[in-house]
Amino acid sequence: MKANNTQLNISNIEKFQNAEQLWFWFVYSKSVQKNFIYQKTHTTKRPCELLDVETLITKLYLSGQLSDEQLETMKLFGDKRRAPHQYIWTENKAASLWKSAMTTLYKAAKEKDWIE
Questions:
Q1: What are the pLDDT digits (tens) for 12-57?
Q2: Which residues 6+ apart lie within 8 Å of 50 measured at CB?
């Protein structure tokens, strides 16, 4: 029997190490997609597509697992490509929101087998 060439080669897929890596990949990839012509020149294949992550975030928000404040914090620091620091007093609240949002995202993405 001949193997189906359209099957996904699982050995080429690189899962994310944690929720932060997933989020930063998503935010960066969305900015590239929005501002430039998207070309598949990178060799790293991920276990999900941008739309998958967007759908997951939307479901978490609509189910009440992510709040408006958490999403705002995720977007703000996602654009900065760094997590808020709990020891910087102006970022203390954001760090708490970030941590709880990343915990929620981690659990949901882990269930989907996107994170090691």
A1: 889 999 999 999 999 998 887 666 555 555 557 899 999 999 999 9
A2: 26, 29, 30, 33
Q: Check if the beta carbon of residue 17 is closer than 8 Å to that of residue 109.
A: no
Strand partners, 13: 45
pLDDT digits (tens, 9 = 90+) for 60-93: 999 999 999 999 999 999 999 999 999 999 999 9
Pair of tokens at residue 115: 């994170």
Hey, what are 108's tokens?
A: 């949901």
pTM of the model: 0.81
Q: Is-contact 73 98, C-beta < 8 A?
A: yes
Q: Tell how far CA 113 is from the center of its chain.
A: 13
CA distances from 61 to 17, 78, 80 (A): 23, 17, 22
Side chain identity, residue 47: P
